[in-house]
Amino acid sequence: MPTELPLSAGKVSASVDKGRHVGAGKVIDNKVVDTRGQSGRQQTARHEETTRTKYPLDYTKYSIVPDYFNYAGIHRPVVLYTVPQTFIDDIIVHTDINDTTGVVHYTVSYNVGEYGVVDPACHVELLDHQGVMVSNGTGLVGTLYIPEANFWWPRLTHSRPGYLYTLKISLIDNDELLDVYRLCIGLRTLQWNSTTLLLNKRPIYLAGFGKHEDAN
Known about the structure:
Beta-gal/glucu_dom_sf; 5-stranded mixed beta sheet; 15 strands; Immunoglobulin-like; beta-glucuronidase activity; mainly beta; carbohydrate binding
């Protein structure tokens, strides 16, 4: 759960517990409350943290030389960012293909602060790589259809690989833009059976894989 932290003169007070986390490899959010009288804004500190007590020294022995050491503190940047009182909190996207038509199923959730708008309107647009709108809709849950869509393909499998659309989500109240979020998405499907992996309903051969830095 997010931990509320006060701000003092633009800095987080060193005497305040800034939130705790036990474990590794998990991004956590701490909500920072602005006590300087600037209503309508809040800040969130996001960081990854590990604990040496839970994962002792030499817990994992690498066969490679990494550029960092596990269980030795914060390995990623700490980021402070502000959000409006009514802001987009999460977007879930599922894509499908119907012949040459692309299908985008979306679900949007938002969060409301003390002075936020409780029931904003949600406008959804899908833009191509040139910024031209190819489909649009309204509501927090819906489906977009893109005729003659450009599907996402890996390199060496298509003349135009890695094609991405931009899903633009806007929260609006009485013609006032409350928040907007843009998410790049590719139109693709992934299926498999006992013998074949299918990308966009076509068999695909995998020549390798990407190994995560923490894979053992």
